[in-house]
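As the next step, I wrote out a protein sequence along with its fold in token form, included below for the reader:
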Amino acid sequence: MSMIWNRPRRLIPPCAALALLCAAWGCQESAGPESPANISGSTIHGEVVETTGSQPVALARVWLNSATGPVAAALTDLNGRFVFSGIVPGSYSLLIRRAGWDSLSTGVPEGVRDTSSVTIRLSRKPSVPEVKPAGRGVFRVLQRRLEQDFNADGMYDPFLVKGVAFSPTLIGTASTDFKTIDRSMRYLDTLNANTLRTYSGADGYLLDRADEHGIHLIVSFWVDASYNLASARAREEIILNFAAMVRSLKDHTAVLMWNLGNEQNYVNGDNLYWYDLVQELAVTAYEIEGEYFHPVCASNGDFLTIGDPAKRSTDEYLTYMDLWGVNIYKLNLSPSFAYYRTRTGKPVVVTEFGIDALDNRTRTEYEGVQEIVDSLNWTQIRSAADVCVGATVFEFTDEWWKAGDPSAHDAGGYATTEHPDGYSNEEWWGLIAVTPDADGDAADDWRPRSAFRMFQRVWR
């Protein structure tokens, strides 16, 4: 049986997400329009403010509904304002939603000179304070520490993440199977790893096997680069998908934390919409899990967009994100950690680091160089223990699908000044080299590289 938990996927298709919305809102089909109480104008102006005072509620989702269902959707701006234009005058209601706030439905007033104006006052949920309280779950973040309550007695000890980015795909595919998961656990036992980082959810079989081997998972939630994060509809779908994942996995003892996205700031997330969505997703997880919540991080590409008020990526805005995740590929990480200390009071878990094992100049392996760079990076990570709670090295095994024919070990990738050969070969990053079956056991052959043996020693 093949599984695709390590590959990007949508948990809920758009049509199903809209059906869930209608169910949540109590939408009902109607044979015809209701008799209108008010006839709106063709333009509807509105603003959403807090019930107490007049502070705007920014980036709330506003749905314009008729008797037969949703008509249009908008996102409030930073001043809490929204507008619907070109609407056929009729009878409408507005539904306003934002995680951590009570949803509110209200009618649209009668239009004056073809324009309807409305002010909507939204209340915070009493169960969701403005600043996230300290957690009482098995894992928690306190100040700049990641801690675990090993015995469920309320006493916490430091937890150091020693792990791998985990996508043990089969040659010829972008997926894995149960047999490969079982095999992976045997290698992880000898590696002395305690953490796996996935990329899109986690299969129940993986969680069960990891739990049996004392391994915890940073469960990632994939956000596709095609999403328009300024779209109320897209944000609603993302939030629903994430909520479904949290509900399905939250009670599994192998879960360490939730990780949002992957280098979103490099694709369509270098803006206030992505980081605000991170806050909403973190609040959504808290609404589901309560005080026994799992920590939430978001895998950023490098540190450069952290702590920017214009992007809403400061601690002031990200009150429900517990720690940062970061994918960072540099020979010297120390200056980056020094910069990070000035940007946030939150700790960081490095969710990707390292180097590939192929010398692009000669097309031969230089696994000794991979070992040296991985070892140097790990030493730098441990030297930043005041802000860094550990790391997952990229990656556990080679993935043949990433740069061309999935049945060929291609040398494709991208140029980089951070590698000795000036190039990153996407299919050669594994601590374990993967080659076609040569011993007749119907499984790809695995060979631990010298970086694997190095981590065996330092993680003992």
About this structure: The chain has eight helices and 26 strands. The two ends are 33 Å apart (CA to CA).
